[in-house]
Fold these 4 entries.
Entry 1:
Amino acid sequence: MIIIGENINATHKKVSEALQARDETFFRELAQQQAEAGASVIDCNTGAQPATEEEDMIWTVGIIQDAVNIPIAVDSANPAVLRAGLEAYRGDQRLMINSINFEQGRFERVLPLVKEFHTQVVALVMSEQGMPRTKDDRVNTARRLIDALTQAGVAPEDIFVDPIVTPIGADATFGRQILDAISEIKEYSPQGHVTCGLSNVSYGLPQRRLVNRTFLAMAMARGLDSAIVNPLDSQLMASVCAAEALLGQDEFCLNYIGASRAGKLD
Amino acid sequence: MIIIGENINATHKKVSEALQARDETFFRELAQQQAEAGASVIDCNTGAQPATEEEDMIWTVGIIQDAVNIPIAVDSANPAVLRAGLEAYRGDQRLMINSINFEQGRFERVLPLVKEFHTQVVALVMSEQGMPRTKDDRVNTARRLIDALTQAGVAPEDIFVDPIVTPIGADATFGRQILDAISEIKEYSPQGHVTCGLSNVSYGLPQRRLVNRTFLAMAMARGLDSAIVNPLDSQLMASVCAAEALLGQDEFCLNYIGASRAGKLD
């Protein structure tokens, strides 16, 4: 499971304040804690204040790359900010762009960055018409994104399709739609990855973390092999650890048993 | 989700002792607690002592039917004990037989009981050669059981196929085999049910309840619609509740929200 740690996101108040205060310790620790908890990639979103987003991205990428030696996902709605983050990186890991999609010319503006910096990329199933409404919307846009990216020379295994999770509290069919979409996308591109941001699924419900971790295990049973989540949620990560063992991705359950001994499953 | 409460099982020492002591309160409360916790069916296995199993079954069925008005699954390796339990029942619920399979003439001896008492039935994927070894063994025996039962006049919706869960600690591929088998069995008989006993999956591992509840959510994502479990495991039942909401089986998430308000998801 490729866990993309979502915690460095300036739309969260605490992160935004630490960013304005240029609190290096805060960001260093947040990167290290996520890596320690099992993140394979650290997402970096500095999109709180458009006026300073670019310099904030450059500064934050600098802190993260000194704190941990794992890939960073530069995450912005603004392609100029993505470029600034990619150019600021001095490490030896391949980076990730979060994200490309078909909305408002974004595909054409982000693809050159994917190619120039040879990054991995989150491909969000937004079409020219915006958000997907049905399972078929999700699968069709996913296929078009995969086709367009691979035709442009991006390797299938560098594409992380995000089928866009929507709240089950708004429509009871949304959960099953996403699960079915995950299966179909994985079937279309077995070498490719399927990822998703989880937390929207539980929007408006009580005990959201229970819904999120239950959904994550269910989605893994349908082919999800990455997730954009809070790796500091220890119960969520315990579910991932158990699910990996159950899917045969943890030979002799050694990682699971080790996590148990380290007290990570309590 | 059709939860078959497994707690009244005389192979557990406490239950066996209460049975020998004819402790009515123990069995009444164990039935009521399971029903209260969400069991739809109460399994009844009195197979501790072969010499008294039949009279133990008759006595226990009598206690359960007075304690709760939900179906009982009579559970024995001995068809004569199954018959005794079915004959002892005086309530108005349809009963279940746990289980029929193809091993050593069991199919021919149990089928007449299914028909005479018009019961539902757990169909365990044991063939004439015994335990299944692969996913294909499971699916093939399941198809044969479904075909043989429906040809004998049993309605598909009265059949609960159990694909037999084996420990992932013994073979890392077992989890995925079971999940794939569940999908294929459900696809073969969409009106039929797929159930399973869970706890074997985690045999030999630490934090077994975590593995069990994670597996249950994953199996539900693949089509499992029943399980033979301990409904007094509140975290397990919370996972089931969240998974039902995620699968669109809980309109407006009302059951989930109610369970949260009742403190059942904590």
Entry 2:
Amino acid sequence: MNHDHDHKACSDGELPAKAPDTGRRQFLQCGTLAGAAAAFGSTIGAASLAHAQTALTRSTISHYHIPASDKTIHWGYFSKSLKELVTVESGDFVTIETITHHAYDDYERMIKGDPGAESIYYWDKTRKGVNRRGAGPMDASLFGRGAGEGLGVHICTGPVAVKDAQPGDILEVRILDVKLRPCANPKYKGKSFGSNAAAWWGFHYKDMIEEPKEREVITIYEVDAAGERNCAKAVYNFRWVPQTDPSGVLHKTIDYPGVPVDHSLVQENFGILKNVRVPIRPHFGTMGLAPAEADIVDSIPPSYTGGNIDNWRIGKGATMYYPVAVPGGLLSVGDPHASQGDSELCGTAIECSLTGTFQLILHKKAALAGTALENLNYPLLETQDEFIVHGFSFANYLAELGPKAQSEIYSKSSIDLALRDAFRKMRHFLMTTQGLSEDEAVSLMSIAVDFGITQVVDGNWGTHAIVKKSLFGVDEA
Amino acid sequence: MNHDHDHKACSDGELPAKAPDTGRRQFLQCGTLAGAAAAFGSTIGAASLAHAQTALTRSTISHYHIPASDKTIHWGYFSKSLKELVTVESGDFVTIETITHHAYDDYERMIKGDPGAESIYYWDKTRKGVNRRGAGPMDASLFGRGAGEGLGVHICTGPVAVKDAQPGDILEVRILDVKLRPCANPKYKGKSFGSNAAAWWGFHYKDMIEEPKEREVITIYEVDAAGERNCAKAVYNFRWVPQTDPSGVLHKTIDYPGVPVDHSLVQENFGILKNVRVPIRPHFGTMGLAPAEADIVDSIPPSYTGGNIDNWRIGKGATMYYPVAVPGGLLSVGDPHASQGDSELCGTAIECSLTGTFQLILHKKAALAGTALENLNYPLLETQDEFIVHGFSFANYLAELGPKAQSEIYSKSSIDLALRDAFRKMRHFLMTTQGLSEDEAVSLMSIAVDFGITQVVDGNWGTHAIVKKSLFGVDEA
């Protein structure tokens, strides 16, 4: 692994930095917030699933800032062997910068002038800023694409360890804020951009009607950075043509992340999607903990510790609950999206760099008995109004599919299987957290729970089941 | 067929009746509304897909009322051979009463005192109010369940023919109002009730955790009739036990619709789903036109002419567009639901009698060229804010699966196939109605269209794709 973490510890007592541009080149910034926990308790509100179990007795809370750079990211995989960037305590805040792995689709708009993105994407004949991209072999002996073989594609910032986290615990991750990363190129000052790749792994790819079929198309979107219009619009699109990377490897398709797109080779089509505006839903496509079952794990298939769930509801104001599988938990965040539809049909969302602020709350296994989090062995999402469970074709594919799980998962997925899993998880959720019998849970699922298709492009296909909080706790008249 | 339509034509010039209780025993009531078309044009609004093509030049519009009774319903099937109850002109209004096929789960709350429901459900040793229930053989030679064999279960009111409707035309059905049917039993005055059956055809059935497994459970819900609280609450549930119908046939499972449940044989469990309230979403699970491919068609699998789509969004304020397959179109409405979740997981919704008021607009094939309805060969839903297409495992299963389609569909369904179909239909919709290229449509689908699971219990499983109207027609800044 090319993972060279040389982070420094923060000393308490500093005020949180205001994140100046140069801040990204610092490794970590942190500060102490007195009384912040109590304040956040009331912000999150009494409806929060775990609130009642969360007793933050610390008088000071630290706030860390993790900029995105070649030193703070791992590309295309999760790993229990990664050294943590920092160890936080339960209740601490972390602001984490994330960079989209599609930024090199348009260097001018998504990398140029941004030291963090430049350090990550650096690639010349002799050196890559980040060499390993994916969970494959470093010598590219499988496909010859490059180190890691692109078996896993997401640039993930982290991991962040949580003090005392042990397998069996639950880590609650509150997403307090999500901000677009402004374009650093003065030419596009004040704007943000993202890329949507309709790629070979998309659901549409072998089912196209216009010629030439089986084409890959990249659409660049401008995203309202001020947040006032809260929408995205297409700038232009182009068809992928074979690209030779700086190491001399030809990429006929989008088969390796971060390949520089030579725009002198592509035809840029402007004036597309005229008069169309897409409301943005900024969120993190990939967020989760390191799994226990394997060392280096492809970042693409989601699993019981989260990862690439690709649910657009995992945005500002939402809370995720993850089962801890390895000591420290090891939270990583990446695959930032400005917007995505349920199914992520063509293979990607509007892939767009974002910065998130999180609060991490550790729920120890010993304290889970009798609570809503007891026996939670899947990633659970809580929004202001809803609880959402995630079903996958295989709930824990690494354990279920054996030694070849990481390749076999790509040939075994189906939405039918993922619905089966979502059904079982929602039944568990309703029986555990609401104390329902199976008969009550099954009836309620049929009349009031909405099952949707999260994604059909991540190997381990996903569904979700949404139940509204307002159904529960109504006083009998 | 036991279908004995002896309706009388309405004479214009009467005012619409106020639907007194005795009105249900009249066959049809109708009246003339002057200028109503223009008024409705403005109510539906400029955002309506077909509004621009709808030029209602008639100065008077009729309003028909079709009560539900043994004379106005067909049970468990669609058929191009059914004689129409009435022929309306494009622009006319029709109020249609519908009765749930689960009413006999609780006779006291859903049938007693209601002449229409009583006439439909009447069943003694020698006579059934409606003999055929389903598309199977009248002599029950397949399974011995009863006439029609329960191969199709929905009580459908209709059909209504539309003057001049021919194959290739599109029928627009605007749902102007949906009302709960009040309980006619004085004991429950002012209330409405529905039934949810977790049945053998449910997605959960072979995957239960509590004993005894493979049990069928019926939950009776009280639905707020006044509409003030707008929610439903469980009253009690009971496990299905073998029931002998008045003809002497034993029904070990819920295998034939309208079997009287003898409540002296079942254990009623009160106090269930305490403090749980389900917001209601009144809608018609089954609404559509007669298909051309077969004579008597099982009402369960939805298809290109609509039918049992089971999308809870097909409620008040929504508009459906159906391809006309046979002369007159032959619209029938049934399977009324008070609420359903996406997937209808356990096999049914809150099955609850409703009355709908509709306006029917015929779009002639010759006038479709260049409009948003050109080449529409699937059922399209328009709500106030959204367009929704419906994907099925087989878009037109009667044509695709051949002579044995009506039995084979039950063994061939999958959500994966239904998503494939929804993808193709949404692509068609975006390319046709918004003038997008395939590349534009595919990108937009991935970033802004939400794909959900409509139902996994109707043989021909369904998905839907939702796109917001607000995406389109934004002026370039």
Entry 3:
Amino acid sequence: MKYGIVIFPSKQLQDLANSYRKRYDPHYALISPHITLKHVFESSNDEVKDITKKLDHIARKFKPFKLHVSKVSSFQPVNNTIYFKVETSPELEQLHRDLYSELPGGDPEYAFVPHITIGQKLSNDEHSDVYGQLRMLGIDHEEVVDRFHLLYQLDNGSWTVYETFRLGEE
Amino acid sequence: MKYGIVIFPSKQLQDLANSYRKRYDPHYALISPHITLKHVFESSNDEVKDITKKLDHIARKFKPFKLHVSKVSSFQPVNNTIYFKVETSPELEQLHRDLYSELPGGDPEYAFVPHITIGQKLSNDEHSDVYGQLRMLGIDHEEVVDRFHLLYQLDNGSWTVYETFRLGEE
């Protein structure tokens, strides 16, 4: 099965992200707005028990931490994804590092740029149009993260939550 | 916020349900295939901590139990919903009772008929056509349930998982 690990931000931030994703993100119906901590990786049904034990262990090392969404940004020229930029923090960096070093799935393909996608797979014209507008609107938002989620992917591409891990819990 | 409590069955069963939902269920994109344990109820952000404590407590009283999906059925003439019938069991009944007696949201509106919806809001003609076909296909499937999920609803009608509760865990 294909697994991934994400943070779902608050309902308020998800609703805001969805107001853009509805028009600009073809993955709108496949998953709620999220910050990807670990990209899709393959694992067997048998392995998942071991993975959840490791995730329990990782989650306990952390405490709830602040998340700061600071602006609208874009991955251009790499691709046409537009996103809410999440300021990196020692906790996010460490969490990302632990999820890659302690779980299957190899090394990250890219440097970690924490973000919440609000538009993707846009044409160049759409991208410059939409990005121009959204960048002007801006965003500045803080909230506390106290959990992350292990998800698996269904055959239709959508994601179901397998389990939640609360930061700092016994 | 609006909350609900569900069981997500195995990926195998979700994929099968989605193969029908894609065509026959307008809620296809809003939530993964599920068994509703407690219908939508309103609760404040402050209350949710208390609710998760109660859910932790309820989950611990149970052990993982068998789920038997026995046939394709329909709620007609009440409505045109077609579903995988889940055989009721002492554990499902008790879980349903506990979630209503110990959490906010009042009494259940209907008798508890555990099921996984595969089609809804069909016209009468569609219903008899689709139901006729699916009933013939049938289903007989067993698996083990070892967790349930507390979800909340976003403004667009879709559901995000707030937290997972593993049955029988400390």
Entry 4:
Amino acid sequence: MATSLEFLTEALRRLPGVGPKSAQRMAYHLLQHDREGAAMLSRALFQAVEAVHHCALCNTFTEDEICGTCRDEDRDKRMLCVVETPADQMMIEQTLTYKGLYFVLMGRLSPLDGIGPKDIHLEKLVERANDGVVGEVVLATNFTNEGEATAHYISELLKARGLKVSRLARGVPVGGELEYVDAGTIARAMLDRRTT
Amino acid sequence: MATSLEFLTEALRRLPGVGPKSAQRMAYHLLQHDREGAAMLSRALFQAVEAVHHCALCNTFTEDEICGTCRDEDRDKRMLCVVETPADQMMIEQTLTYKGLYFVLMGRLSPLDGIGPKDIHLEKLVERANDGVVGEVVLATNFTNEGEATAHYISELLKARGLKVSRLARGVPVGGELEYVDAGTIARAMLDRRTT
């Protein structure tokens, strides 16, 4: 087999979720059917590694010093929403219900994977939240065990510094039928019930 | 979001089996945790696109005009084994039971996907098999519907030119328990039974 091909297969295995068989299939596919795509991916990777950095304020990926969202003068600077990933931020943006700023952790606390407070930039978050303008921090980490633990940890950290901290509401999803919602969610929705 | 990031996500979708969500996850992972891997993959893709071509004889991927297997003087030039992919060739090599040469189709006939005889280089195969030295062509395409159809098509093509054509035996896998083997395989094994 060709050396360049082995090198390519090995490099493709660096992608998350790609094992030896998939890597080989990808390499064959690119060389056999999509050399243009391979060249394009090569350029895209090179360009992204060169150009993409973290926003000095919110920590998301950007090609500038400060990202577009943080530079947006129309946003409410008193609100700071903490999310795990840029994808989560995008989901919240799509709801059109939030007009404040963001802080992107780029991860979550996960002691088992060796991901501690430093890896999710909590020092940077504390500094950002204590700029004197931010009045409320909305924790929008995932509602997984790790996301909840991360939210709890950040909450303690920021409340100790006198900041108001809130968490996205948990409950029955919109359109959800009780019959098909898990008991934990219903229990939480019962506890958090609102008077109408 | 950054333009380089969007470009990278789009380029990652060119990989087989990678949808929008996976592409985004891969892009985030590379930029956040493995920029070295991203740079390596970029180089590997560039290098492979530049260097890897098809062997003039057996059609497999190689960086030379003729691949190492075809150049190997110790191989039996009277035998030609037809496989779908280089991975299949490697599996056969690992058995150490075959010392002839190969022809790699780089695919299989699949009318539904628009893959016809030209796409799997059957003209090149016919020319190759009619070099006056090859005496037997062993069809080792997969035992899927498409692989079987491909084998049948090639068989007719080569037999019409007076070549001896054989097919890998079908039957119960080594170590297979009849109870767990499908009826079609057992039926085939019964038809192809051998006197001992």
